[in-house]
Amino acid sequence: MLVSSLLVAMFFAVTLAGAGAAAEIAAGAPNEASGHDLYRRGFYEEAIAEWKRAVEENGDTGAAFRLGEEYFDAKVVTRDVETALKFLRFGAEGGDARAQQDLATMYDNGWGVTKDTDEAAKWYLAAALQGSAVAQYNIATMYETGTGVEQDIEKAYMYYLLSIEGGFPHFATTELENVSQAMTAQQIKDATVMARQFKPVGENIVDEDG
Predict the structure, then answer these.
(1) Which of 1, 54, 110, 166 has its CA 20 to 30 A from that of 174?
(2) Domain span at residue 96?
(3) Tens-digit pLDDT profile for residues 143-196
(4) 90 and 1 fall within a common domain
(5) Which of 80, 115, 150 is the last residue of a domain?
(6) How many CA atoms lie within 13 A of 95 on its CB side?
């Protein structure tokens, strides 16, 4: 079962640490963090403006993620799925794992785009490789069922295990138990070894404790 049918209410609710290109932005320049500081103090319009400047002037992928989130959730701006997609795509293509996860969910559900499981799998995998536990769960379901990717039960087990260890055990634990029933002892051993050897890669190594 894909996460889209289980966790629609959680879309855009998972907050992962990482400022994308912010690390390369000059001190004092608008960035994701400066916008977030305004936002948490209740200066919502100013935060949106700060994030837009961060994207336009500095290519801040983390700020793009925040804007995509805001335009989809419509907490402080009018909902605009097309604009949300624009910012999420910018963030995803720039390497922000959070934006990759959310863009994948848009394709997985057909929100503002034609439903495309191949494209969803592409972006789930990109985020999963950076260490996103939610994306690891999502790509595991796709490997288990062969949706958007070639079916690979060992990779499914590996990503379920990584998702659990990364802080997303609620659904992943059940799915790990289910998929293991269709595996041999050797397959489980091999998949576990792959999980142990996994090292996050990419522009924005995520940390769900942040």
Answers:
(1) 110
(2) 1-6+29-115
(3) 999 999 999 999 999 999 999 999 999 999 999 999 999 999 999 999 999 999
(4) yes
(5) 115
(6) 16
Q: pLDDT tens digit string along 83-96?
A: 999 999 999 999 99
Residue 205 is predicted with a pLDDT of 58
Query: How big is the chain by its Cα radius of gyration, in Å?
Result: 17
- 1 with 99, same domain? yes
- Residue 15, pLDDT > 90, answer no
Q: What is the DSSP string of the chain?
A: --GGGT-GGGTTT------GGGGGSPTTS--HHHHHHHHHTT-HHHHHHHHHHHHHHH--HHHHHHHHHHHHH-SSS---HHHHHHHHHHHHHTT-HHHHHHHHHHHHHTSSS---HHHHHHHHHHHHHTT-HHHHHHHHHHHHHTSSS---HHHHHHHHHHHHHTT-HHHHHHHHHHHHTTS-HHHHHHHHHHHHH----SSS---TT-
User: In which residue are the tokens 């379920």 written?
Assistant: 160
Residue 210 predicted with pLDDT over 50: no
Question: Does residue 83 sit in the same domain as residue 36?
Answer: yes
Q: Are 33 and 134 in contact (CB under 8 A)?
A: no
Average pLDDT over residues 60-69: 98
- Quick one: pLDDT at residue 14? 47
Torsion of CA 47, 51, 53, 58, to 10 degrees: 150
